[in-house]
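Why should sequence recovery work at all? Because a backbone constrains its sequence more than one might expect. Tight turns favour small or flexible residues, buried strands favour hydrophobic ones, and helices have their own preferences. The token representation captures these environments compactly. In the example below, the structure is given first.
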């Protein structure tokens, strides 16, 4: 079951894509997308996290992004996944 949450990124949609790509790929993950939407996959010590994002608004100094988690380790609470994902962005 997919779960969603929003993050407020302190920059433009372009900045979000550049920084998210770098952060996720540096950790060995996969990031594919543009200034509107995309997908990502991360490996953790206890399993994979897969999801997507959609930029809701990115017209100013801050960008609101909707994150949807499609797959996560069964034993990890969603609050921990959200905390880790927000750390990447």
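From this structural description, the recovered sequence reads:
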């Amino acid at each position: 079951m997919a779960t969603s949450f929003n993050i407020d990124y302190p920059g433009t949609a372009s900045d979000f894509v550049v920084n998210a790509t770098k952060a996720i790929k540096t950790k060995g993950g996969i990031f594919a997308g543009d200034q509107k939407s995309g997908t990502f996959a991360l490996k953790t010590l206890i399993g994979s996290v897969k999801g997507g994002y959609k930029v809701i608004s990115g017209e100013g100094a801050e960008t609101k992004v909707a994150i949807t988690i499609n797959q996560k380790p069964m034993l990890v609470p969603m609050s921990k996944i959200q905390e880790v994902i927000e750390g990447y962005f």
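A few observations help interpret the result. The mean pLDDT is 89.
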